[in-house]
Design goal:
- The structure is a homodimer.
- Chain A is an alpha/beta fold.
- The first copy, chain A, has one domain (4-19, 29-82, 100-213): Dihydrofolate Reductase, subunit A (3-Layer(aba) Sandwich), CATH 3.40.430.
- Chain A has helices spanning 37-40, 43-48, 58-65, 77-80, 132-143, 154-162; strands at 4-12, 16-18, 70-75, 105-109, 117-118, 124-128, 147-152, 168-174, 182-183, 195-202, 207-213.
- In chain A, strands 5-6-4-3-7-1-8-11-10 form a 9-stranded mixed sheet, with helices on both faces. In chain A, strands 2-9 form a two-stranded antiparallel ribbon.
- The longest helix of chain A has 12 residues, at 132-143.
- Chains A and B meet through strand 10 and strand 11 of A and strand 10 and strand 11 of B.
Chain lengths: 216, 216
């Protein structure tokens, strides 16, 4: 059975996974870019977008683990784009251009049906309208013997976490304050859901925490 | 003018400054002890309670800074003790025995009047019933040219923070999940209050964050 994994999800010191007022100009919400400063400089991230160079070490190792053994992705709708409500047309195809960095099946959670879109580089976006468990089932089928990565955003992670469906979650606490936006953990009692802090390591740029379900 | 400083206030990865259900057996709430593992092993902390040895290095440096140039303390009532409502008698004198680790004037926030108590080692507990600003004024007078340390707990810090009265705050994020309890930052928009993350450094045991008011 494929595991559902979260990687490289960055939160602020005050717990926000994105800033407020997400829109076309601020896909991560106001101030949200600062959450990701630790990862955009890594070799893994730069390679993902066809760039050379980048840092190696702990931050890069965490970035790279997020792509190891992944057979399918799940994304929340807000992570796919700023469009709200019914899809007005087929224009919007994600934030990432013609060749998105997924290179496999991606299941997008939405309340509004839309035909699948095949992109360059092997990425296909599928739109799932019947809930998070249906999306997980479809992603599991597509992933085969590999795992599923839940890419975000905060709202999608909160739903899967509250349902106890995430097997492992790597978060990076970035040394910034956002003050408002989408809080990742508010109201979710992780120990009661069986989660514990399984690993932690810090660098100059971020504190990496791996949260996993308690064995047994 | 003395500055109001918070030091060594530990929170969990999910943002709680104390566990739920604080009582005589669990002064830090259920699971709350784990928040403080980083500090109880330091040389500074051990010396405070008359013990020898202890670790030196970054964690200890942060612990020691919390005692430098402090002329008075402010504590919330729950940090002073588990007694709620009017004081039934003068029996309760804090969690710390006859010789508390403050060695100076300590202003305890409470709604219920009580006579001051002089303890061994120079600590005197004063009980302030007319609010956080009155407590700060009295502590500032007592501190003279030195600073005031706000010891906690979370509720007292939240009040001073929301009023923009804290000048500098060192928090330690411990690698544990609490799931419930007293959340430190919920609903407080720190950047709007003028705060920013001024310093961060992590060790094996904790991620240290210094939050300060933006200059100007």
């Amino acid at each position: 059975m494929p595991r559902l994994r979260v990687h490289c999800f960055a939160i602020s010191v005050d717990g926000y996974g994105a800033g407020p007022n997400q829109d076309l100009d601020n896909p991560l919400g106001a101030g949200g870019e600062a959450l990701h400063e630790w990862v955009v400089v890594t070799r893994t991230f730069r390679q993902l977008f066809g760039q050379e160079g980048g840092t190696t070490g702990v931050d890069d190792d965490f970035a790279a683990k997020g792509f190891a053994d992944i057979g399918a992705w799940i994304l929340g709708r807000n992570m796919f784009g700023p469009v709200r409500g019914p899809w007005p047309d087929d224009t919007w195809k994600g934030w990432w251009g013609d060749n998105p960095p997924y290179h496999g099946p991606v299941f997008v959670l939405t309340h509004h049906p839309r035909a699948s879109i095949a992109m360059d580089g092997g990425t296909t976006f599928h739109f799932v309208t019947d809930g998070i468990e249906a999306a997980l089932e479809r992603a599991a089928e597509a992933a085969g013997n590999r795992d599923i990565r839940l890419g975000g955003g905060a709202a999608a992670i909160r739903q899967y976490l509250s349902a106890g469906l995430i097997d492992e979650m790597h978060i990076a606490i970035s040394p910034v304050l956002l003050g408002a936006g989408e809080h990742l953990f508010a109201g979710i009692d992780l120990p009661s859901l069986g989660y514990r802090c399984a690993e932690h390591v810090a660098t100059e740029a971020a504190t990496h925490i791996v949260i996993a379900r308690q064995p047994g």
